[in-house]
Each structure stands twice: as C-alpha cells, then as structure tokens.
Here is the input.
Amino acid sequence: MCKRTMGFLISHKNNEKRRALLPKDLSMIKNCDCLYFESGYGESVNCTDEEYLRYGVHVVSREEVLECDIIVDVKLGDADYLEEIEDGKILCGWAHAVQGIEFTSVCLKKNFTVIAWEEIFEHGQYIFHRNREVAGEAGILQAFLYCGKMPYDTKVAILGNGQTAKGALRVLNGLGAEVDVYGRNLENLFKRNMDQYDVLVNCIMWDTNRTDRIIYREDLKRLKKGCMIVDISCDPNLEIETTHATTIDNPVYVVDGIIHYAVDNTPAMFPYTVTKVLSSGFALYVDQILENRLSESINKATVIKEGNIKDINIRKFRERIGEFCK
Here is the structure.
C-alpha cells in the first residue's frame, strides 16, 4: 500500500468546472486506496460520488482532502487555502509560478513542492496541448459576444502561432473572419499594422525575462474606434500594459475606448471536453507521484521543491521585480 495520500479539491476559481480525474480513468491507477476526492467532485461533469467510490477511492470532506500529503487543484495558482494547510505538502495543478508572485511567495515560505501542470512535456509535446487549443476556441466564442460584430464582419490579428493561436484561428476561420497571424518574428510588423484591425487576439507565450511590451497603453490611441483586445494569454503587467484578469461572469472592461477581454480560465467554459484531456493525461502520473518514483517529465515540472526554487525563470523574474528568492 502507498504510504502517501493524494487529495483532489474542487477549485474555488470563478466558474472553474474542469476536473483532474474522471472515474473511468481510475482503472489506470493501482493506488486508488490512497486517493481522496472532495464530496461532489465530479458533479460539474455529471459524475457522481458513487462512480468514484466503485474504484476504491475515498470521498470525503474538503477539510479531509486538505490533510492529504499531495493536493491536486486544477487552478492551483488561484488556491485560497495555502496559508491554512500544513507546511511541506506537494501541490499539483496549473501553478503559473513565474507570474504568480503571491502564490510563489507562500510556497517558498511554507516549504511546499509544486508540480506545475503547464511544465509537463512528453517527447517535446505538452501533455495538455488540447486545453490550450480550447483556450483559444473558447476565448473567441465568448469575446465576440461583446464585440458588437459577427466574426465575418471583422479583420483580426492573432499574435502568436502556438496551440492557443491554433484554436483561435480554427474558430475565426470557421466563422468567416479575415485573419492575419503574427508569429514571434513578426512582432515589429504587427506593431506597424495594429491600427488596421477590428480585433487583436493575444496568444503569445511571453518570455517573462523580457522588459518590453507588445502593446502599450499609448498604442490604444492608434487603434480603430471600438476595437477589441482579446487577451487569451492574460499575463498581467507583461506583454499588454492594460491587461488585468477578468472572470467568465464579468469578462470585459474598457480602457480608452478599447474593449478588453481577459478571462484567464477560458477552457473552464467547456469542462466536459477539457476534463477528458486532463484525466487521461494526469492518470499516467498519479502512481509515480504517490510512490515518489518521479519520471524525468515530472522532475522537470517540479518548479519548487521543498520551498526552494528549481525553475530558473521564477528566480529571474522575482529578482527583476525585487522579490525575495531562496
């Protein structure tokens, strides 16, 4: 029997309905007796506690989940319980520890170990790449509700050419928008052309060591009247000066006449689609994390270990902004 326990929490992030494990994928895990799920965990994706219990896991209160050695939280970087739990725990989920200054500070103080989902790659491919595509798809679908125009009446610039941009482009092309894509080598061209577009879609995976921006507040004066910025990457204080995170319930705000859409968990609007991806992917790592026999992929994704920074990008970013590192 495994000596460590792993708890699965329901995230308190606004409208966060994605889950880390579905009952059907528990058949891939041998240490099910070490798994503890918060009561009602699967309700958002139409899975009952009874379906989980059939595999020998435990369904318990939130308080009991927080007592586990390892805590899995889909939106870990937005956790609201870190100060309450014991020091030294292992945390798994989307951490975004480079940009998440407050989150990382607590993890350092309390000697947590953080396995960041955004850093898990196999054979060079991000294991949850489909989630990134859904981020682009979902962001476009919701943002255009606030644009005032159908996509086929717009000229759109997409910044970035990764998986998020792929998802955004798929929806925009399907709905008839005129789209130009600006990859990493075309940033200067975009800056010259940005005033030509009705909608700007940011899908850049920004280098947090950069000190410049792709859009400054002063650039908003150049944009078309009624233009909308769809910031799917949503990195506050980084590539777009006027970005701050919004919620699914309240997704837009206006700065200098320019609509900003900046929901930072857009895939949560399609929890069934995404949970299937998360569950089949994460199930492969549950036993090794429980048994502390970590693969190279999980070792590389361990960005903080026992309160010490392992990811050099976290250290560089915190040093640049004057935050304590250890």
User: Anything to note?
Assistant: The first helix runs from residue 49 to 53. The mean pLDDT is 94.
